[in-house]
Amino acid sequence: MKNKEVKNNPEFLAYVFKLNEGNELTEALELSLKAIKDIDIAQLNRIGLKTYEKDKWTIHKILQHLIDWERIWCFSAIVFARNEGSTPGPLNQEIMGKNSNANELSIEQLVNELLIVRQSTIMMFNSFNKKILETNCVFSMYEMPLYTIGLTIAAHQIHHFNIIKEKYLPLDK
Q1: What is the pLDDT of residues 23-60, one digit of tens each?
Q2: Which listed residue, of 19, 41, 45, 166, carries a Cα 20 to 30 Å from 88's Cα?
């Protein structure tokens, strides 16, 4: 799927495409899988539960957030792929983050879970044919083809990995 095929391109999709640097769905998801495999677990363990600013999430919570939202977006993709209807209304990431127990889990555990979830996501998107991937999806106020859900998953990871790199890795002193 080429990015130009997007109908009613919501503003955030421009950011999704930018973060994915023009990569198509399969390549974007494979690159995101490689980025997970390349995580320096020892460095994240040294940072531990530190945050760069008061009331910001720990790296643990960021990883859990990526896992949770990937599952939510995959659920949405299945609903649209199977023509089952619509997905639930907007969810609050702050409430979800507050109620996660991510800080009780190890970095190894969270990275491994993210890796497995991503592998499952890749398999799911690879199982969809062209017609399914081009299925029109309507989320509350957004309309886009199903394949952009996969691109959003990859871009979401890039976004948060950039935050970790810029704001958390300097805490490793």
Answers
A1: 999 999 999 999 999 999 999 999 999 999 999 999 99
A2: 19
In a domain, 16, yes or no: no
* Residues listed for the chain: 173
Q: What is the CATH number of the domain that holds 99?
A: 1.20.120.450
The Cα 93–Cα 171 span in angstroms is 24
10 assigned to some structural domain:
no
Tell me if 12 is assigned to some domain: no
Residue 142: domain span: 27-40+57-171
Q: Give CA–CA dist 97/99, Å, rounded.
A: 5
User: Rounded to an integer, what distance in angstroms lies between the CA atom of residue 170 and that of residue 154?
Assistant: 24
Tens of pLDDT along 136-170? 888 766 788 999 999 999 999 999 999 999 999 99
Model pTM score = 0.92
The total number of structural domains that make up the chain: 1
